[in-house]
């Protein structure tokens, strides 16, 4: 039976029919796995933001360099495309992890919910609380960013 309200039990099915917990040990290991996945989500978000910031803050090549060496412009275009692709891949991986965490919470198990929230908060504290993403937001003049 699928629960539609929060419940507190060691018996929970997470994401797959084969991921069922029947014992306290299995439930605890599952909560630990969900906690680590939530913390990893914050780590991946930090990596993506840092990677994007590093590539955006690199100085642009001098305009006269393209006159003297026209192939440098092609290299920088290829590099920009590679960077955008890498950021997109990181975004996709992070989105997938986020959706899996959301689906885990939709099991409506109270322990899973608390494990995800505490994992996200712990991951944020460990990886993203330095305030560097605030600098990125200040650098972007767009109000919607």
From TrEMBL:
Its main location: membrane. It is a multi-pass membrane protein. GO terms for cellular component: plasma membrane. Keywords: Copper, Copper transport, Ion transport, Membrane, Transmembrane, Transmembrane helix, Transport. Pfam families: Ctr (PF04145). The chain crosses the membrane at residues 24-44, 81-102, 108-127. It is found in: Membrane. InterPro entries: Cop_transporter (IPR007274). GO terms for molecular function: copper ion transmembrane transporter activity. Belongs to the copper transporter (Ctr) (TC 1.A.56) family. SLC31A subfamily. This is Copper transport protein.
């Amino acid at each position: 039976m699928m629960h539609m309200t929060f419940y507190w039990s060691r018996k929970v099915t997470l994401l797959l029919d084969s991921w069922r917990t029947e014992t306290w040990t299995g439930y605890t290991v599952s909560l630990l796995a969900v906690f680590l996945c939530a913390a990893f989500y914050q780590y991946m978000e930090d990596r993506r933001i840092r990677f994007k910031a590093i590539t955006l803050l690199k100085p642009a090549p001098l305009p006269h360099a393209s006159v003297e060496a026209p192939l440098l412009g092609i290299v920088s275009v290829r590099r920009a495309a590679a960077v955008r692709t890498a950021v997109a891949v990181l975004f996709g991986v992070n989105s997938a992890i986020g959706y899996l965490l959301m689906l885990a919470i939709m099991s409506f198990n109270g322990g899973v919910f608390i494990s995800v929230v505490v994992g996200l908060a712990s991951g944020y504290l460990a990886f993203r609380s330095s305030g560097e993403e605030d600098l990125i937001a200040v650098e972007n003049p767009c109000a919607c960013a």
